[in-house]
């Protein structure tokens, strides 16, 4: 079997390692690759965004399954290109990927389908957006409708701050064309939860819930990033809650998308706020989240390849039951100094042998490359250091031990990933 992974970050590295376990005799290919994927997959000299070339190469080289990790190619219609070449690809079509690529579409669909979400307004003109902000007051959330690398949603503590961000987005100063439409919505309070679901257009099979930490600073302070760490499972995400999410959020969304002519086949990610009145959708993503993938996938005992292949080939996953390892997983993201702002690239990275050889630690490469035989940084989020253990506290300790042992100049990481879960565990023992 020949498998192509589109993308080259930490999420794709985690998927690659899992799929190699599921299919040890398969041939794996990856776009560009990074410093950690060498030896596990053949790197192609093609960018994830070079969709026509990737589709043609896949058809000519007999790829049996392609898996798209990043949102950009999905929003550009990679699944449609591959379908025209007769190559199965795990990921939604261009029309279905709008659930992530257009927050205006997603919010409008949720309203029509009765899916619980924050009250909102959508705007293309600043004057109308300003009237809405002044009427609603603060705190309030201003979101760019398009893709903004996980940084397009801004919680504004004052009306003036909200006005400034809305003005900058609509003027194209903040996120370019991604901000040509904005969604302005009420600020929800509660605890966030990330829920992945494998979807075949009709059925949704919920995976292990996770929680990530988007803010750069400890205590969840400072600007949003692409994610500074995550953990799974989450104690407050009970079987009853996840069943409610499936019935009231995931299945109605799939139904509404089919009615729109955009059957969703792939991985649907629901970013939720657990409010006092129940779970509400903050956002949908059309692919695996990063860094949540780095804690969910290592805990999956059963095959991920089999349902992915079935979905990509147009099959059903009705009746699918996923089997999970016991225990907990926690990942700590090591970032370049200055991230999410300006940062240096090409800095030498050292991963000591004791980390490489630890059976309970996985180092997933995100922004790394090999230069003259040495591992160097190539991005803002450099590594995701995942530890597995029988309980969350031990997983956190091992992840931070490995994060501390890895060295590169300017390294920054949060030492409090999983703090809510650890506090819950502590409270339950006192």
Overview of the molecule:
It contains 14 helices and 22 strands. The protein has four domains: 2-91, Rossmann fold (3-Layer(aba) Sandwich); 119-186, Dna Ligase, domain 1, CATH 3.30.1490.20; 191-312, ATP-grasp fold, B domain (D-amino Acid Aminotransferase, Chain A, domain 1, 2-Layer Sandwich), CATH 3.30.470; 328-428, Phosphoribosylglycinamide synthetase, C-terminal domain (Glycinamide Ribonucleotide Synthetase, Chain A, domain 4, Alpha-Beta Complex). The strands form six sheets. It has a five-stranded parallel beta sheet. Strands 12-15-18-22-19 form a five-stranded antiparallel beta sheet. The protein has 430 residues and is α+β, with helices and mostly antiparallel strands. Helix 7 (126-136) runs antiparallel to helix 8 (159-170). The protein starts with a strand and ends with a helix. It is globular, with a radius of gyration of 21 Å. Strand 10 and strand 11 form a beta hairpin. The mean pLDDT is 96.
Topology:
Blueprint: E1 2-6, H1 10-22, E2 27-31, E3 42-44, H2 51-60, E4 65-68, H3 71-75, H4 78-84, E5 89-90, H5 98-101, H6 103-113, E6 120-123, H7 126-136, E7 140-144, E8 153-156, H8 159-170, E9 182-186, E10 191-200, E11 204-206, E12 211-212, E13 215-217, E14 221-224, E15 229-232, H9 239-259, E16 265-275, E17 278-285, H10 293-296, H11 305-312, E18 328-335, H12 353-356, E19 361-365, E20 368-371, E21 374-377, E22 381-389, H13 392-405, H14 419-428
Parallel strand pairs: 1-2, 1-4, 2-3, 4-5
Antiparallel strand pairs: 6-9, 7-8, 7-9, 10-11, 10-16, 12-15, 13-14, 15-18, 16-17, 18-22, 19-22, 20-21
